[in-house]
Design brief:
The chain is mainly alpha-helical. It is built from seven helices and three strands; from the N terminus they run E-E-E-H-H-H-H-H-H-H. Strands 1-2-3 form a three-stranded antiparallel β-sheet.
Length: about 160
């Protein structure tokens, strides 16, 4: 599993043949989002080791976060879905974690729910990374290797 950032701002080789590339915008804040995602991986590692590789009920996932915020704002599922121009059932599946939101949906969703787009993107990325490794026996090792590779690439200015 290779996790690297190219100079063009693309997250490459993130998955074990599950994700080939996820576009990140090329501004400098994306590197911080990526680092935040890797930092979140430390939390995921703790949970995975104590809960047999299953998401801990206290862990706030992307879907949980958007559902909680939608309910705090007293918005109905159909209202948010309509603003997102998506089917209500699809948004419900995203909230339950049965389906993944697309990268392009993060910023509009953050705007509708008045959430920080960087924080929502970080949670979305952390969930995707977790989904890639949740059933892998060496998931924790892969996270550690990815973090090491990423940090080395940032200090040398190179990506692998």
């Amino acid at each position: 599993m290779n996790l690297s950032m190219s100079s063009s701002g693309h997250l490459l080789n993130l998955s074990l043949d599950k994700i080939s590339a996820s576009n990140l915008s090329t501004n400098g804040s994306d590197l911080q989002i990526f680092v935040d995602c890797l930092s979140t991986s430390s939390y995921i590692r703790q949970i995975m080791s104590s809960q047999n590789l299953k998401i801990h009920s206290d862990m706030k996932t992307f879907g949980t976060k958007i559902r909680q915020r939608r309910e705090e704002k007293n918005l109905l599922l159909r209202q948010v879905a309509a603003q997102m121009e998506m089917d209500t059932a699809l948004l419900s599946k995203i909230e339950r974690g049965d389906r993944n939101a697309r990268r392009a949906q993060i910023e509009p969703l953050a705007a509708i729910l008045e959430l920080d787009p960087k924080e929502l993107l970080t949670q979305w990325l952390a969930d995707r990374v977790y989904q890639l490794i949740e059933d892998e026996d060496v998931g924790i090792n892969a996270l550690q290797e990815a973090e090491t590779t990423y940090r080395k690439s940032q200090t040398t200015g190179k990506t692998s």
